[in-house]
Automatic annotation (TrEMBL):
Name of protein: Putative secreted protein (Por secretion system target)
InterPro entries attached to this UniProt entry: Integrin_alpha_N (IPR028994), Secre_tail (IPR026444)
Segments forming domain Secretion system C-terminal sorting: 885-964
Top-level taxon: Bacteria
Signal peptide from the UniProt entry: 1-24
Any one Pfam family match given in the protein's UniProt record, by short name: Por_Secre_tail
UniProt keyword Signal, yes or no: yes
Keywords: Signal
SUPFAM superfamilies for this protein: Integrin alpha N-terminal domain
Amino acid sequence: MKTGNFTNIKIIFLFFFFSLQCFDAQVTIAPVGSPATLPNINLNDIDNICTISNNYRGLTKISSVDPSNNYQATFNNNTWNSGAWFRGYFSGFEDTLDKRTKFYNENWSSHPLARSTSKVVRGLIHYNNFRGENGNANYNLNIDQIVDGLKYLQTQIQPSGGVIWWFERPGLNTFDQDDTPGANNIHIYETGHTLATLCDGYMYLKKINKLDRVPNLIQDINKIAGFIEQIPVPTTDILDPSTQYNTADYMAFGLWGLSKAYKVTKNCNYLNKVTEICNWFIAYQSLDNTNNEECKGTWKFSSQTENNVQIYSNTKIVYHLVCVRGLIEAFDIIPASSSIRENLSNTIKLGVNHIIKKRVRESDQTLSWLQFDTNCQTLANIDYAYYYDNDQVEPIALLAYYATLHNDLFNNSEKEYLKNFLIKMSLYSGSRILPSTNNQGDYGALIQMHSWAYYVDYYNAITHGYKIFAEDGNPYYDSNKVMNKMVSGDFDNDGKQDDIAAFYDYGGDPINGMTTELHVLKGTGSNFNFSSSSIYWQAPNYNSAQIVGNTVSGDFDNDGKQDDIALFYDLGTDPVNGAKTAIHVFKGNVNSFEYSGTNGFWQSQGYDSGKITDRIVSGDFDNDGKVDDIAAFYDYGTGGTRIHVFRGTGSGFEYLNGADGFWQQTSYDANKITGKIVSGDFDNDGNFDDIAAFYDDGNTANGIKTSIHVFKGTGTGFDYSDPNGFWNTTGYDSNKITGRVVSGDFDNDGKYDDIIAFYDYGSNETRAHIFRSTGTGFEYLPYASDGFWQNINYKADNITGRLISGDFDNDGNFDDIAGFKNNTNQNSSINVWLSSNHDFQYTGIDNWFGCGSNSNNIFIAAKSPNNYNSIEYSVSAKNQNEIVVYPNPADDIINIKYQLKEKGSVLINISTFEGRRINIQPYIKEEKGIYNKVYNIKRYHLTKGTYLVEIYINNILHTKKIIIK
């Protein structure tokens, strides 16, 4: 598995232009016509259709068909699996003579199809979720059916990972089929459906804390996804009929399932393949503006004759929407930093606009099955009907929902258009789920069941602003979600304090709970690895907002490893007994955490954790040689402050001296040190038992005053230095460092007694100040005002509450600093400062999340003490591969010719000056030789301008300038 390693090879094309934009204007969703009337959502109707669905699962098997009696079927006493719906191509309920004849004469299978079960199961999931989000007591009403369906789908997975399409029965007169494939083969249609449903099932069961109901679910998801990931993606517009991807819609089934699998697993191989497939769809979508734009936004593949007219099968409304659905699901997982994200959104919008503009008949909301021939000429006789029984509502429901989670690429008007379009496309399904309102009874209601479920759940989510699944809408790692909830430690037990652990808040709702995951980024000495295995712990009902203040790490289970995490958790307030607080401990187990449970290692009714916010540290305060204790500054109000100490026992905490604590004072304002305290050995006695705090002394005649107060541990209490502290000065504003103070051994003298504070000078200027301990005071070193590091284009607030120290370069010294830097609507950077001879080597790791990589990902490679934006990338002339870009200037076509002097890796992107990128060649490995790649400029929406092309080959940067005329 690729783990988002920062040394992955990537090619970046930066296109600089003078006055002309290099892309067409961003595509927008077209208006949908008159506002739609909201359908009525009736819970009784939903309960009724769910009950009806039970009549179509575990059906009796066919024993014979009598051709002499209008091909009527008879049935035996054997039944199909209770988790299987329908009988394949012979329902036994809704059929005609024509269908019965074809079933018999064409040897169709009566084995339940995975696609049919998938649709019903996903419908039940969304009905259940809708109930739960609305506080309905029956939100688990269909859980047994969902579980049975998921288990049946697991039985349809073959050893290769594919899922069988039961198309034929073993013999013309053989109806009691066994599971021997025979003429039936693995098919991407069934495989994609099954994978998507297993993933939805996983996310839903995780949400309601019932994953134990379906064993091996994640293993089977990976098995199918691994199969799809290995299917080669076409590199041209010629589709090989002998492959799984012989039509665009078949490719979209793989894209759909694989995108959901990435949501569940965070496997980078899946995301890379998703990106590759998306690139194909972007490249080969029709942009034809002729003939009134009949073809625009479609994929013109699979030519065939129908009703004596040559048409493209992939432009049939059902297959077109299958393509759109795959792209929409992929869009939700593409990282915000990805070069294809904006172009993918444009591709989706063009595909949806084709439906809005060309396929919907406004008078009755019917859809055209086909619209044009292979010459993009409008058909003479267009067939309009209610084609809403084959997941046609789902793509629009998904897009309307995801648009609310991706505000950077969907404006408010587009969101309203999509919501209105969803309503209109759902009206038919809503009117058909009642058997009395259609001419097919229960069966007619059931085939609309899943379409109505998508409307009900997704529209409700849009209206009330909740997420269907916690995994939805996370295109970047938002460092705001881990503020004050990250620590360093040795969580992989390799003996190095080089890992980062962070509690990530995925949000949720008051009914189903808030979802929290505990992520671990494993340090390697030169980077951090993040993948699906980085999720060390997760809970669907753990609210990280109730974690009070900062978290701390230590050896709280006394196993000799600094791999545990402790935090104060707010259990709420009782009107009579007051606040209740627990100390939760997460014990490290190499690749996971063992949660201590709600009661934690310690709890108390009447202890208000809100009184210790951001004033918590860990250390060895009882001097037993173990970093297993916690100290907290408790604010009693009106200047009263006490230091409470919780001594670790390995299985709990002892509240030493109770409320009296290890130290107390009646004229010490705890709020003056909030977010500015650290622990260490500041008196140099060899014990990690001291606390240092920056105290805001307020304004004086000479300006604002700050002191560093040191509380020296004695094993049974704290010796408070004095109000002047180990250091004090006027003109230094401690409020400029709040949430950005760490301790360590930054002067490399072997003592954990120094402090680094990141000072905000305003106007985006930041400096890292060092305070070196002497054992009796702090030296604010002569160069300290300039700092160990300074940057005139770095906003300090972007790392507030997200800064930790450790040994991230694995040199054995606890002298490095790492922080999550918040980037608005973009992936957070991991910033690393490596201590080096009174200086810091600094780099910002940008694309660590979402399997990305960048040229500055190896954080020991770059040094920039003054301005991180000044980091430059150079190209060595030694063994340089030859690059030629021609013609120059170019018109419609550009050629990129290069020579590989050894086997190498190449990936080609194009991006605007602002950094918006499109991918023109996916990441590929190539043998030694000369290559000449031809690219159609029009395909990539490039317009006039001057561009700088930067290419990485084997991680070496090459730069070429080109003009597009």
